[in-house]
Amino acid sequence: MKAKRAPIQLSCQSASPEVAMAGGSRKFYSRPMKGIINGVIVFAVALLAPQILQAQGTMTYLSNVDQASAGSFAVGSDSWLAVQFITGTNASGYLLDSIQLGMADATGSPSGFTVTLFSGGGTLPGPGHSLGTLDGSLNPVAGGIFTYAPTSTITLAGDKYYYIVLTAGTAVATGAYDLSYAGDNTYTRNGGWLSYGRTLTSSDASSWSSIGNYAQFSIEATPIPEPGVLALSGLGGLLLLWHRRKSKVV
Fold first, then answer.
1. Which residues make up the CATH 2.60.120 domain(s) of the chain?
2. What are the phi and psi torsion angles at 187 (to 5°)?
C-alpha cells in the first residue's frame, strides 16, 4: 500500500513588493538596484540645483541707484558720457534685460536723450563698437530713475568690459541732461560683475578722458545656461523617466 503524499500548498502572494506583473510575466527588481538608481537621481538633482537656480530668470547684477546723489554729469551732443562695467563669470554669457539710470533735474531745454550699449575698446580707453540703442525716455528732464531696454537681443560675453554711452541732440549751452553720481564705490554686486566707477567724457565720441566718480546705474540680465548644465538636465530627466517606466506596474 502506497503512502499518501501531503498536498502541496501554492501561495498567490509574491515574495516581495519588488515583483511587478507585466504582460503575464514577472519582473524582479532588487532593492539594491533600486537604491542605486535613486542615488544616481538624487546626485544628479543635487548637482544641477545650484546651476539651474542661477540660470532662472532676470537678476540685478550691479546697482547703486539707491545711494544718495553727490552730484551730476552733464550730457549733451558735445558732452558724451561712457560708464564702464565688467560682466560676471558665467562662461556662456548673459542676455541684457534692462539698464536703469539715476538722473538729476535737467538744465535748460535739452532734447534727444540717447542710451547706447558699446563693447569695450580693447587696449584703447573708451567704447569700442555699438551693440544697440536702448529704448526708454527720450526726455528725462525730471530727476528720478529711468529704465532703458534693448529693442533686440543683446548678448554679453562673460568677464568683458562694456560701456553705457549717453548723448543728446542738443549742445550743453542749449540745455543738458544730468546723470547722477554717488560719493563712493558702493555698488551692490552679484555673480562676479564689477564697476570701478570709471566714467569717461568726450566732446565728439572720438577720444575719451576720465572724469571719475561713481555714476548711478543698475543692470539687469539673464544668465545663459552653460552647455554642461543643459546636458546634465537632460540626463536627469531621462533617468527619472526610465526609473518611472521600470517601476510602473502594468
1. 59-223
2. -65, 135
